[in-house]
Specification:
The chain is built from 4 helices and no strands. The chain is mainly α. It has one domain: lambda repressor-like DNA-binding domains (434 Repressor (Amino-terminal Domain)). α1 packs across α3, α2 packs across α3 and α2 crosses α4. The radius of gyration is 10 Å and the shape is globular.
């Protein structure tokens, strides 16, 4: 599996654990909901800064989205 799919799967897993919608995660991270959707589908080349924003919103360490 590629890194983008790995990140996307991890974002989706963490979001669903919190029972958040993509819209809620987007709001918490200061990103657009379609951007979150693209991350989760593995079609967005997400930057390190946005990985950090998503991780902070989820209250996890950024590296947890990469594993």
């Amino acid at each position: 599996m590629g890194i983008l799919k790995t990140i996307g799967n991890n974002v989706r897993k963490q979001r669903k654990l919190r029972e958040w919608s993509q819209e809620r995660l987007a709001e918490e991270a200061g990103l657009h909901p379609t951007y979150i959707s693209g991350i989760e589908r593995g079609v967005r080349n997400v930057s390190a800064l946005n990985i950090e924003r998503v991780a902070k919103a989820l209250k996890i360490k950024p590296h947890q989205l990469l594993e």
